[in-house]
Amino acid sequence: MKTRHDIFDLISISRMYGADSRYVLLGGGNTSRKIGEVMYVKASGCALSDIDETGFVAMSLPKLNAIWDKRYPENTKEREKEILHDMMEARCQGETARPSVEALLHSIIPFTYVVHLHPALVNGLTCSQSGKQSAASLFPDALWIPLVNPGYILAKTVRDALQETGESTLIFLQNHGVFAGADTVGQIEHLYDSIMKKLNRSVVRKPIFTEVKVHAKRVKTVQTAMERFYGGPIKYPMVSNREIASRLVDEKSFYSLSSAYTPDHIVYSGFRPLWIPEKIFEAEQPVEAVLDALRLFEKKHGVTAKIIAVQKTSVFAISEAAMALFLDTVKIAAFTEGFGGPRFMDDEQIEFIRTWEVEQYRANMSGK
Ligand SMILES: [Zn+2]
After folding, report:
1. Which tens digits make up the pLDDT trace of 76-108?
2. 229 CA → ligand 1 middle, Å
3. Distance of CA 262 from the midpoint of ligand 1 (Å)
4. Least confident of 99-108, 161-170, 307-316, 333-342
5. What is the whole-number distance in angstroms between the Cα of residue 178 and the centre of ligand 1?
6. Which of 183, 261, 330, 362 has the largest CB neighbor count within 10 A?
């Protein structure tokens, strides 16, 4: 028998953070509440902003705990397949949705409420060179978890760390975000307020998103090529602001936007943008030249580019969602300046996310 009336407070706190782009974007983040032996956790692919009770999956905590007594294959693919099976089996009777990628991690955090978010401000810390040291001095009681495969391995890493250090209300995940756990929603809000206040004081500067003039002819050229490559007629999102313009000067200045900071960036805006040098506009047929660049990217990487960054021009995206996550990348890049500069996910982790069935499912659910 479901006790869904018990999760009204979980729904309202989920919507509150989900609707605030400072904390999370699109289908990112997840929340849970434990009631006795049941944990209600966000379903994969749902957005927190408009979640209702159908967006949560009831799971058996004893069944989730039993996962730790099992031995899984060493082979990553086989292991992930078995884990996914066991996660689905751990759902309470009658549940049909797929639980969040991080449900297992939620289950081991010893608090009633767990709220996991990806604030750009937090990721300025978790995606930076001195993130670990800065986190230790700003949040001495928090756990810092290095970059590991999400899902089972991440949950296992956190579980081992918790067994060593005891309870932690805050867990920072390198190149990902933060988990906050507490026994009341009021305490969760207090935790997030204090994180945001401290980080706001620690960043050296905020990104400058004032619009700048665009080169209309170049924009037309790129958009025409995009329409031909991706299909049209669609007006593909294009942005140019001071922060982006300062990074479109050359490839070196673009470095801090040139790869993926977190799994969500890979899911929504691609594992890396396509960089197009401005000399492309000197070609006899610039539209054809841009088309060639788009085709070459696809041939080389096996996927089409979701973000196209054109030197001294603008940034283009294949969808509003891709643009939203790219702008998040821009914010994170600026915030990392307060913590020793940017630090992207490593190639191995990027590859894991790109091929992980669980993330492909999530991307499909979000229509990306
Ligand atoms: Zn996350």
Report:
1. 888 988 999 999 999 999 999 999 989 999 999
2. 32
3. 8
4. 161-170
5. 8
6. 261
Contact 180, 170 (CB under 8 A): yes
The CA 30 to ligand 1 mean position distance, Å, reads 7
The pLDDT, as a whole number, for residue 1 is 41
| Ligand 1 centroid, distance to 101 Cα (angstroms) | 8
Query: What is the distance in A from the centroid of ligand 1 to the CA of 124?
Result: 15
d(CA 314, CA 215): 8
Query: How large is the average pLDDT for residues 108-121?
Result: 96
* Cis previous bond, 233, omega within 30: yes
pLDDT in tens, 173-202: 999 999 999 999 999 999 999 999 999 998
Q: What is the pTM of this model?
A: 0.92
The three-state secondary structure class of 113 is strand
How far is the centre of ligand 1, averaged over its atoms, from the C-alpha of 117 (Å)?
6
Amino acid 203: pLDDT: 85
Q: Give the residue from 251, 243, 252, 239 showing the smallest Cα distance to 278.
A: 251
Question: Which residues have beta carbons under 5 A from ligand 1 (an ion)?
Answer: 177
**Domains observed in the chain:** 4-201 (3.40.225.10), 216-365 (3.40.225.10)
